[in-house]
Amino acid sequence: MKLRTLEMKLERVSGIPNPDPVKEQYMTSAPLAARLLFDAYLAGDIEGCSVCDLGSGTGILSIGAALLGAGEVVGVEGDARLVAIARENAEKLSVDCRFIADDVKSLRESFDTVVMNPPFGAQSEHADRPFIDAALRAAPVVYGIFNTGTMPFLASYIRGRAEITGVVSALFPIKRTFSFHSRDLLEIPVEIVCMRRT
């Protein structure tokens, strides 16, 4: 499957109704999700692999992994209402994904690859850390979306457990969603980061 084809398919994934700003519930855009997944696919970390999507929201990364031929896909999301939407999205795109309503800290299964768009910690400091910890426990390779400028912290935080083996710059489009948003569209510079356990 070509990158653009994947992107077009992911445009069909329904977003987050009444998102919670404290939980930083922002929908990952189809182009950004497709870019992360396609990079992981080209590296051999999706097709035929068991893939876990931490903080899966309405399932865009899970569904994309399944479309790219993942052997097993599990999405873990703490908000049960989003799990229900993710299941509907997977059915709409005719893919097989298992979605679990649970805190990422409770994850005990092992996978080949983790994909995730964790909270950046803008509303709740260090909100990304439980995701990083859970990801590195669950799989030897992790692809995540992080705020640009996070790399020094991330490299330090994972030292002794993993190393950063790839970084791709991208933009995270955020439409006006909450009362504190002052613009119709804000594009946040982000980095798609690949971490591999050492």
Automatic annotation (TrEMBL):
**What residues does the Methyltransferase small domain cover?**
48-127
In its keyword annotation, does this UniProt entry include tRNA-binding?
A: no
Q: Which InterPro entries match?
A: DNA_methylase_N6_adenine_CS (IPR002052), rRNA_MeTrfase/Polyamine_Synth (IPR051720), SAM-dependent_MTases_sf (IPR029063), Small_mtfrase_dom (IPR007848)
What GO MF annotations does this protein's record show?
Answer: S-adenosylmethionine-dependent methyltransferase activity
Q: Which GO terms describe its biological process?
A: methylation
Family annotation (Pfam families): MTS
What does the UniProt keyword field contain?
Methyltransferase, Transferase
Q: Which residues cross the membrane?
A: none
Q: Does the keyword Transferase apply?
A: yes
The family database entries (CDD domains) matched by this protein are listed as: AdoMet_MTases
The UniProt similarity line reads:
Belongs to the methyltransferase superfamily. PrmA family.
PANTHER family, per the entry = RRNA N6-ADENOSINE-METHYLTRANSFERASE METTL5
Name of the protein described by the UniProt record = Methyltransferase-like protein 5
Q: What is the lineage of its organism?
A: Archaea, Methanobacteriati, Methanobacteriota, Stenosarchaea group, Methanomicrobia
